[in-house]
Amino acid sequence: MSGQNPTTSRKTWNNRWTFMLAAAGSAIGLGNIWKFPYIAGQYGGGAFVLVYLLCIALVGIPLLMAETAIGRSTRLSPLNAMRKLTSDAGVFRGWEVIGWMGMVTGFIILTFYSVVAGWALSYAWDLLTGVFNGMSADQIGGEFEALTASAPRQILWHTLFMVITVLITARGVHKGLEKGLQVMMPTLFVLLFAMLGYSILATGEFMRGFHFMFDVDFSKITGEAVAAAMGQAFFTLSLGMCALMAYGAYMPANNSIPRTALNVAFLDTLMAIISGLIVFPIVYAHGLEPSAGPGLLFVSLTSAFANITGGSILGFIFFTLVGIAALSSAISLIEPSLSWVTERFAINRVLATWLIGGAIWLVGLGSVFSFNIWADVKFFDKTIFDLAGYMTDVFLLPLGGALTAIFAGWIIKRSVMSNELAMSVGLFNVWRIAVRIIVPVAVALILYTALK
Ligand code: PHE
User: Which of 256, 293, 367, 369 is surrounded by the most beta carbons within 10 Å?
Assistant: First the structure.
């Protein structure tokens, strides 16, 4: 499916849907299905959702375009892309820090992401084997506690997820993955819509869930909530850590970056909103709390699956697809480090993937232990699992994103970006104002409030 790009030795994805699929695969994952409902629940719903949507539109979409354009203009790994662009522009090499930060951030995210993806696999298996049959919502909640209390059980699933990630990543992003995603992403969509139908028709609480998500109580817009909403916007669109820069390097020159960015942002946001509309009505129908935390998706949906005929098999399919959505995101979390390591050292891709994957797996044990033997080990009042999420969402991704925006808006030659984006002058100028001013100012304000 791939061919040589005439101007460089790097391969591009010939099929114009491949980039779209890979970018959507990166964006759509646990961030939409697991994290969005749980964070929206913790910050009280509507107000959080509103700020989140604003961040997607004003900060997310312009940055999505910038990152992809940077990757495509150089066709190099993120770190080497930054190197080339800084030397082309004749500016301070310090900008390379964006590439370094991206690798580190992706690494940290994957350490806890893999643990949560492991939970999804564990739920798929337990549903299939009928563990939850006939259980009450309380008992199902107890099962989540039991899973997280058990280090060995979590290690098993975390290991399985990392091994699958490494096996697929080692083959090269565009091989193995493309065909699988073409089938699985649409299936996930269909299943989410089916679940949405269930929430609307069968829970009797749809409107309550709907109001929770969309009624805006302005008193709930605290500095912390705004910082969390912005972090979530970065996280869910895979921004601020060079993932889309790494993928942009393979994007065919005749694909439209703005159109693709809009499509990806739209699909991603739709998935998050639907996930919320599935989860909250079920939460109310089963007497659960929206603010229950990281177990929200697992406990609420499993309570529903335990109550519907054929629920076990449906639940199995659902959580398997969640695992697969997580997989396509995980691959993009490794890609920046992997593409750099293989460019930098004379080491083959397979070995490099195992080394990086192994290191992520090891550090991920810290997240596993956060729920059991190291539950009391806290830094800044947070367990390792919470800290990894907080550091990446609130600091590293927004900071990486703001630096990328400044770089794309102020440092890179205007003509390079306008060639890549190929928009009308008017729209290009709007984009430029967004990356030059709106993104950096928004991030600075929010970091300031978060730190205060
Ligand atoms: N966007 C992915 C999700 O929502 C997570 C991710 C973050 C992937 C950053 C790559 C980079 O699940």
Answer: 367
- pTM of the predicted structure, to 2 decimals: 0.93
pLDDT digits (tens, 9 = 90+) for 340-356: 888 888 889 899 999 99
Q: Which residue among 332, 338, 391, 394 is best mutated to probe the pocket of ligand 1, counting the most ligand atoms within 8 A of its Cβ?
A: 332
Distance from C-alpha of 329 to C-alpha of 31, rounded to nearest angstrom: 9
Q: Which residues pair with 86 in a beta bridge?
A: none
pLDDT at 296: 97
Q: Do 118 and 320 contact (CB within 8 A), yes or no?
A: no
**Distance from the alpha carbon of residue 25 to the mean position of ligand 1, in angstroms:** 9
What is the model's pLDDT at position 346?
84
At position 259, the amino acid (one-letter code) is: R
The pLDDT of residue 14: 65
The bridge status of strand 11-13 relative to strand 2-4 is antiparallel
Q: Whose CA is nearest to atom 11 of ligand 1?
A: 238
pLDDT below 50 — which residues of the chain?
Answer: 1-9
The tens digit of pLDDT for each residue in 253-266 reads: 989 999 999 999 99
Q: Tell me, what's the pLDDT at 189?
A: 87
Dist. CA 353–CA 168, nearest whole Å: 10
Ligand 1 neighbours, Cβ below 6 Å, are: 26-27, 29-32, 109, 235-236, 238, 241, 243, 329, 332-333
Question: Could you tell which of 55, 238, 247, 335 is best to mutate to test the pocket of ligand 1, judged by most ligand atoms within 8 Å of the CB?
Answer: 238
DSSP 8-state assignment for residue 220:
G
Q: In sequence order, what DSSP letters do the residues of 168-210 get, joined into one string? A: HHHT-TTSTHHHHHHHHHHHHHHHHHHHHHHHHHHSS-HHHHH
How far does residue 49's CA lie from ligand 1's centre (Å)? 18
